[in-house]
Amino acid sequence: MINCLRKPEVKKVVEITVRISIRELVEFVYKEGSIDVRFQARTSMSTGTKLHQKLQKEYKEGDEKEVFLKGERSVEGIIYQMEGRCDGIHYEDGQVIVEEIKSTARSIDHIEEGSRVHWAQGECYAYLAAKAKDLPHISVQLTYIEVESEITKSFIRTYTIEELEHIVDETLSAYTPFASLLLTNQQQRIESIPALTFPYQSYRKGQKNLAGAVYKTIGESKTLYANAPTGTGKTISTLFPTIKAMEEENTKWFYVTAKTITRTVAEEAILLLEKGGLKQRTITLTAKDKICFKEETICQKEYCEFANGYYDRINGAIIDIITHETTMTRPIVETYARKHQVCPFEFSIDLSYLVDGVICDYNYIFDPKVSLKRMSDDSKKKTVLLIDEAHNLVGRGREMYSATLNKSSFLEIKKMYPEHAALKKSIVAVNKEFLRLKKQVDDVQIELDAELIDAVERFVEEAEKCLKTDGDMNDGFLQLYFDALSFVRIAHLFSNEHRFVVTKSSHEVEVKLFCMDPSTFIKQTTKPFRSTVFFSATLHPFSYYFQQLGGSEVDYRFLIPSPFDRRQWKVGIHPISTRFKDRHRTLPSITRSIEETITEHRGNYLVFFSSYTYMREAFEGMVQDSIDAEFIMQEANMKEKAREEFLLQYQTDRERPVIGFAVLGGIFSEGIDLKGDRLKGVILVGVGLPQPNREQEIIKDYFTKQGMNGFDYAYIYPGLNKVFQSGGRLIRSEEDTGVLRLMDDRYLSPKYQSLLLEEWKDYQIFT
Question: Do 406 and 509 contact (CB within 8 A), yes or no?
Answer without folding.
Answer: yes
